[in-house]
């Protein structure tokens, strides 16, 4: 997935109200950017961090910059959670995940007031796919999810398990949106309910997958090498 507009580096001044971030641009101007991340961004929102933002000239948008990447010592992290679905969508449509090839549909209603990120029609079978963007790392090389409590995430796991019980396939796909990790685990201390829901979903037959990405200021590319 290529960014629509060339990203520019900036300095993070503060992140607040979840979806706002004050930044300093290279020319010294201080502006407010949209921060498209509903999580805690643990370890990724410290004042002074180098970030990459995407400018826009859309007259309908009040904020003219969007926070996309955080640059750490030796690592890049995609903090725009919407990027994960775009990357996975491209990968599915390009056939980069061999056993998930088929007719791809996005945002499909299922379960109780839920929408699956993707539903793949494979011959006459349905494969339900939920995508989670993973940005938390508290131990070198270890990626964790979630970075805050998520009742919605636990609900999705239950919905996937219900699809399996009805004879469909279901996949929970974690996309590790940082390039300094090679292991993954649920963050059970942050949200034990979610960790339990994942364990139950796995036992019920939900396919748990973990994939990574290659990150540059120009694009975020799916890496087909799973490290679950």
Outline the structure in words:
This protein is 17% helix and 44% strand. The protein has three helices and 15 strands. It has helices spanning 82-93, 151-165, 192-203; strands at residues 8-16, 20-24, 30-34, 50-55, 65-72, 75-78, 103-110, 114-122, 125-134, 136-139, 141-145, 169-176, 181-186, 207-215, 220-223. Strands 3-2-1-4-5-6 form a six-stranded antiparallel β-sheet, with no helix packed on it. β2 and β3 (30-34) form a beta hairpin. α2 (151-165) packs parallel to α3 (192-203). The longest helix is centred in the C-terminal third of the chain and has 15 residues, at 151-165.
Question: Any chance you could write out the topology, listing elements then pairs?
Answer:
Layout: E1 8-16, E2 20-24, E3 30-34, E4 50-55, E5 65-72, E6 75-78, H1 82-93, E7 103-110, E8 114-122, E9 125-134, E10 136-139, E11 141-145, H2 151-165, E12 169-176, E13 181-186, H3 192-203, E14 207-215, E15 220-223
Parallel strand pairs: 9-12, 11-13, 12-14
Antiparallel strand pairs: 1-2, 1-4, 2-3, 4-5, 5-6, 7-8, 8-9, 10-11, 14-15
């Amino acid at each position: 997935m290529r960014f629509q507009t060339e990203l520019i580096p900036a300095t993070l001044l503060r992140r607040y109200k979840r979806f706002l971030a004050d930044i300093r641009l290279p020319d010294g101007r201080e502006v407010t950017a949209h921060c498209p991340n509903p999580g805690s961004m643990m370890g990724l929102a410290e004042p002074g961090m180098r970030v990459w933002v995407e400018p826009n000239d859309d007259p309908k948008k009040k904020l003219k910059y969007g926070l996309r990447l955080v640059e750490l010592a030796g690592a890049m992290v995609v903090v725009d959670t919407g990027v994960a679905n775009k990357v996975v969508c491209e990968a599915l449509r390009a056939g980069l995940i061999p056993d998930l090839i088929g007719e791809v549909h996005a945002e499909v209603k299922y379960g109780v007031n839920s929408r699956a990120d993707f539903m793949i029609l494979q011959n006459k079978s349905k494969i339900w796919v939920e995508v989670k963007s993973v940005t938390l790392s508290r131990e070198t090389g270890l990626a964790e999810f979630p970075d805050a409590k998520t009742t919605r995430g636990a609900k999705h796991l239950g919905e996937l398990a219900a699809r399996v019980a009805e004879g469909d396939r279901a996949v929970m796909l974690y996309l590790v949106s940082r390039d300094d990790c090679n292991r993954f685990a649920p963050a059970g201390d942050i949200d034990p309910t979610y960790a339990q829901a994942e364990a139950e979903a796995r036992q019920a037959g939900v396919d748990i997958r973990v994939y990574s990405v290659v990150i540059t200021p120009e694009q975020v590319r799916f890496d087909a090498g799973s490290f679950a």
